[in-house]
Specification:
Elements lengths: L13 H5 L5 H7 L34 H20 L12 H25 L3 H39 L8 H24 L4 H29 L2 H27 L2 E7 L6 E3 L4 E5 L6 E2 L11 E6 L2 E12 L2 E7 L5 E4 L2 E7 L4
Parallel strand pairs: 3-4
Antiparallel strand pairs: 1-2, 1-9, 3-5, 5-6, 6-7, 6-8, 8-9
């Protein structure tokens, strides 16, 4: 068909194209050589709202499980001792009510400390209150029950020592006898620690750590008493060590035996690890979530969840979540994956299975 336009036809040859030079400014604005992180509008290959680069932050010791559980046990046991000590009388004076309730009160407040410690470091105050009430009730009951059991164990252990010819508290056999009896208190602390978080596995780890820590604390109690030559200071040091050792041991055992966990690489909780005990772990800005993420308005109340099914771990996202830099809604996690939610970044880890 003939060309009816009066204007002359423009023809561009390959030689003409070869002579065209592209300025550096044009390349920086929209070319393929644009700097990393620059937004290229109109490029359908690049999604809007990319994950930002993660800067690893040094974690605080305050967020280590062995530290905050140890401090919780120490403070709880010292508080219990401080309440009862004014009404405690050393033999041969007749005992008062402080003698009868000292160990149950110490154990009860240790349990409260273990129950609320993790929620405190996570700044989930709503969890702190109801966990404190639950731990207080459980600790009160278990405190008196386990005190009876521990006294029975101690008397049996002492009778065995006497049969072996042991006559004084200076003999290490008596120290071991007290340590065995105080393991009972560690069991109570581990039970409460797991129950307040509704985790059977946490109960198991707590009991194991409690047995180890309380046993060590009990074995050192008599040497402390002999070194101080005073009733009240030795009891303060002994019970403080009981709470401290029990909490530290619980945290160490829990960390050593964990199966899968999220380590916070950046954000307000950098350095903390969230052990995935439950079949379903919720994540969000609601304090009712298992993993509470605060100070970030971009995070939904129920932002996502992690489901453990056999040997696999699945991430489900309701809000914007990136895994290894890619936006996801559902994904099976692999050990080493970097999960980004708002200003938080987590390393997913799982123990190798042989």
């Amino acid at each position: 068909m003939a060309n009816t336009d009066d204007k002359p036809v423009m023809k561009i040859t390959l030689e003409d194209l070869a002579k065209v030079a592209v300025s550096p400014d044009a390349q920086g604005a929209g070319g393929a050589s644009a700097g990393a992180g620059a937004r290229q509008y109109g490029n359908i290959a690049e999604p809007v709202g990319d994950a930002v680069a993660v800067t690893e932050e040094k974690g605080s010791i305050l967020l280590k499980g062995w530290f905050y559980l140890g401090m919780a046990g120490l403070l709880g046991s010292l508080l219990g001792w401080g309440i009862c000590e004014p009404w405690f009388l050393d033999p041969p004076l007749p005992p008062r009510w402080g003698n009868a309730v000292l160990m149950p009160v110490v154990l009860m407040l240790m349990c409260v400390g273990f129950g609320v410690a993790e929620s405190l470091v996570e700044r989930s105050l709503s969890k702190v209150w109801w966990r404190a009430l639950l731990a207080l009730g459980l600790g009160l009951v278990l405190g008196f029950v386990f005190d009876i059991i521990a006294n029975l164990v101690y008397r049996i252990a002492l009778s065995i020592c006497f049969e072996m010819g042991v006559q004084t508290n200076a003999n290490p056999a008596v120290w071991i006898a007290r340590g065995v009896a105080w393991m009972v208190f560690g069991i109570a602390g581990g039970i409460v620690y797991g129950i307040v978080d509704r985790s059977g596995k946490k109960v198991q780890y707590g009991i194991l750590g409690g047995i180890i820590g309380a046993g060590l604390g009990g074995m050192i109690f008599d040497p402390i008493s002999m070194a101080t030559h005073a009733g009240a200071p030795s009891r303060a040091a002994g019970f403080g060590l009981l709470g401290l050792a029990t909490g530290v041991a619980m945290g160490i055992v829990e960390s050593a035996l964990k199966d899968r966990w999220l380590y916070v690489a950046s954000g307000p909780l950098a350095g903390k690890q969230f052990i995935l005990y439950k079949p379903l772990t919720t994540i969000g800005s609601s304090q009712q979530c298992d993993i509470y993420l605060f100070k970030d308005n971009s995070i939904l109340p129920q932002h996502g969840s992690i489901e453990v099914r056999g040997a696999q771990t699945f991430l489900r996202a309701s809000g914007q979540v990136y895994v290894s830099g890619q936006p996801v809604k559902s994904r099976a996690l692999q050990s080493g994956d970097l999960v980004q939610i708002g200003r938080y970044a987590f390393h997913f880890r799982e123990r190798s299975r042989k």
